[in-house]
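Homework-ish question, so no full write-ups if that breaks the rules, but can someone show me the predicted structure for this set?
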Amino acid sequence: MGLRAMRYVARKVVLFLITLWAAITLNFILPRLMPGSPVDAALAKLASSGQPITNAERRAVEIQLGVPHTSLITQYWDYWTSIVHLNFGTSYSFPSETVAQTIGKAAPWTLALVGVTTIVAFIIGTLLGVYAGWRRGKAADTSVTLGATFFAAFPPFWLGLLLLYVFAFTYGWFPIKGGYNPGETPNLSLSFLTSAVYHSVIPALTLAITSLSGWVFGMRNNMINTLGEDYVTFAEANGLRTRTVALLYAARNALLPNVTAFGLSLGAVVGGSVLVEGVFSYPGLGNLLYIAVVNHDFPLMQALFLVITVAMLVAIFIVDVLYVRLDPRVRQ
Amino acid sequence: MRRLSHAKSMTICAAAVALALVGVSCSSSSNNGTTGSGTLTIQGDSGNPTLVENFNPFQGSQLHGTNLIYEPLEIPSPIDGTYTPFLATGFKFSDTKTLVYTIRQGVKWSDGKDFTPADVVFTFNLLKKYPALDGRGVWQQITAVSASGNDVTMSFSTPNVPFAISIAQTEIVPEHLWTNMADPTKDPNTSPVGTGPFMLDAFAPTQYSLKKNTTYWQADKIAPAEVLFPAQASNQSTNQLDVVSGKFDWSYNFLPDVKTTYVARDPAHNQYWFPPGGTIGLYLNLTKQPYSDVNFRMGLSLALDRSTIALKAVNGYLDQASMSGLILPNLKKWLDPSLPNQGNVKQDASAAQAAFAQAGYALQSGKLVKNGKQASMTIVMPGNFSDWVAAAKEVVNQLGSVGINASLDLPQYAQYSQSIQAGTFDAAIGGFGGTGDPYTDYSLALSSSFATPVNTPTANNFERFKDPSVDQALSTLASATDSSSQKQATYALEQVMYNKVPILLMYYGGSWGLFSTKRFTGWPSAANPYTLPTSYNNSLLTVLTHVTKA
Amino acid sequence: MSIVSPVPPPEVPGAGVEIRVGPAGPIPGPLRFLGRALRTLWSNRKASIGLVILGLVILVAVFAPLLAPHSPTATTFVPYQNPSATNWFGTTGNGQDVFSQMVFGARISLLVGIAAGAMATLMAVTIGLIAGYRPGVIDELLSFMTNLVLVIPGLPLMFILAAYLQKRSVWTIVFVVAFTSWATGARVIRSQASTLRTREFVTSAVFSGEGLFRVVFREILPNMTSLVAGSFFSAATAAVMAEASLEFLGLGDPNAVSWGTILYYAQQQNSLLTGQWVLVFAPGLAIALLAVSFTLINFGVDALSNPRLREK
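A: Not a homework solution, just the prediction itself:
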């Protein structure tokens, strides 16, 4: 890698670390700003849960939500210490295990769902965007753009409900709920993996359809801009067929800015997954967040928010660094 | 060109793989849940949101299947109180303070050891040693337990004939295993050994299964070879869709318009029975103002239009409840004839305002106000009990029209249960009665022996009602031996419910029994009401010893 | 009165709208400007469809009391009824008329969409302008804040904020949505403002002694109208969807009647199970149409600012 590329990566790393710090600090500040003292509510609920709560667990909850009569600096330092040790306390929705364990069990499901959905939506959306941008102004373009706009306007949970009702309930082609067949425990056997894929089809389809438009429009606009560039006109003037030009040169160059739009699209998918996982009772982080919100389970909410934000930051950072590999201009 | 066709072919590849997997999964999942004709699948056990393994029969968080692993001495029918003997072959009161059970012989524990009367004595002494396990409050009534020969004798501190109902239902656990248990109040008992018809086969957070205990003392009456308990979702609508899709033999779930949504799907096999199983009431935290003021409570009672609440909540399946505390017409023989209109209270806005005025409240520009503050209320209930939520919504409406600002809190069941047991709630929707015996109904709800201070959990009388005259009436009823003195004592309790309004009873809650006769028949029904169709208590045991293969 | 310089070259997006501030006439300046903008938008086919839909929704919302046959909250009907002569869309499980709820629901959905969109845009414009016009520490700080809010996933943050705030009202939703959606617009506006800052007409205005506010509000802002409009419509789209999501999860005001709450009760009372399609279809479709109308209008606004995207 050339010097320019390394400087680019170094800048991205620094930016990532600073943003990470800021996000974690924001997570620290949020419950301490809220009216009604979330820490008191959380401790009261834990106290009456019937399950004995050790002092260590109580302390962990306070560190997350707000320790009374302690300076903010001390709290902040303790907060960082507990984060590094992955000690988020105990949630009262799942009193028999720590928050870290609950999240650990749900995380792979959301990763799989969101990951698969984003890839599928990226591929299909980009292809459609190339097609629409190339055939600009014609019927194909209008139908793709209007179609994508319309589908993007569907609230994800609404589409999920409709797909659930038609394909899972009325026709019985897919399961109504869950991440895998009841009675199985997560393992790496083929039967478990196939049941997991089977259960993820409709949730993934729902999320993919509603997040498609971002890719379609991003790619279409980039195609249109690229097709107006001088080098394209030059290539056409040299006798290359429009189709060759469009697909070989324009698409490839238009692809790059689309990669950075990945970050924003990922946010939409993660947000949508909260609702869709709730509708399908899919055992991921989105479902956990739904339960936490409904139960006013503040320790769980805090930890989930932190995990989701950090995961997104990391994903965007990885994509940004990959950009170096894809864009030859930075590499030289 | 190359790049794009590569991408295209990758997409096609991925699609093909996905389709292949779907194809494979389709065939494998069609066997899901019905592993053979001898499997009975029961819906209704829910976790938080997944099942937490707990087969300890004394803990509130036990899984429903625990009722099929352990047996009590006898089971009284929750409808009319008739006893079915299990581990005891009979009982009698040798005098009003001494209860003697004759214990069944020839019963074995599922690990092969013999069941003896010593196990019964051990179980009751265990409840004495660990009061947290004594959810029925047995040791508030008995003073000693002993065995001699085939009999177990219990001595009462005061005469209490009806209390046999609670004693009979105590599940018996094996002495040879539970003596070694470090802390039975916390042990989830994941390898349960009982005398019951089924044993634990496998547990997963999404489903657990029980297999038939072939050495069970009435094994010939048990038709299924296996019982499956898949976990419910935390989403009520998903559960309803699951139920009507025909996967279960026995479901317990409220369904709107049941004839169209359930029966019509398979008229030959799908049947339902929604008998009144209890009363649903609005509980007020009596440790707080203004709920501790009887005038305020009376005002609330007069402000409610109970028949509309019933219509909204249970869709016309059941009626408004009588403020006598009795389920009518089931328990009509106990009804105090001097109660106006059988204890049914009609909405009366002006009388309500008069009662509020007595409590110091006045209506100012549409708001019910005292000392400048508007009366407000937060009502808590599990968010997936859709009929409770519908009732509460209607209550909010009706209270709003008398100037009270009411709102709803809809957490999951476990959180609701914690807040009512601890007494930290404001107002709550909850169940009342339904045991089939008036004494037990009133005692569990009104006896001050259950009213622990706020933040000490209690399973009964969580509204913390304390009234010495009620305790007196309860003990009179407990020692009454002839029917006329029993009735008089019951009338006194009905008068307390009607005049002091400790709980705002609203409508009769249904037991939402949904059955399929495709694989098994013999379910409880209006024609054969041998028990209530509740799948979360010992009715499980009663039903499973009744059903036969279709 | 000064005349702003004519349309700049196309590579600068967002500055393609020609503003002519002429002598005062019988119609006040801003209204004439709005009229011109609407006419320009109307010429774009997609935007015209969007305007028609939005106009219909506004009409329904404004004339709701006349259009709705019954009160939306009265629980006087038989519950769980299919569409009939009295209840054109059927009834809810509480016995309320769904058609009246749909009509009145337009008010809240529209209100939240427009109010949250406007508030988010206001915040975006303020922050973007300040950051773009004042380079240096302030710019770095504000840009960093903007980027931070951008990467934080919006919907989860909204849910958490709504959960912490115990009071549930429509305005809670508006504030929560606005506070989480301003970042995209702020980034775009900032970049445009910082580009315009170096343009000649701005420099000349500063040299001729115009104060800070005049420069910002009379020179820079009018050249970003289409950007601001685009940002508003994007934010309004997001707000409509967010409101529906919050209501559907029960995080909104359960006593309000909006399209989102109709879906919430449809889910609670399992309208799909009872065969009441309309209760699920109608509000979802309405939400989608309102969101689509904002997006379509945004196409027109986009085309105004980027001539390459204009329809040939």
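Now go work out the reasoning yourself. Hint: Chain A touches chain C through 55 residues (CB under 8 Å).
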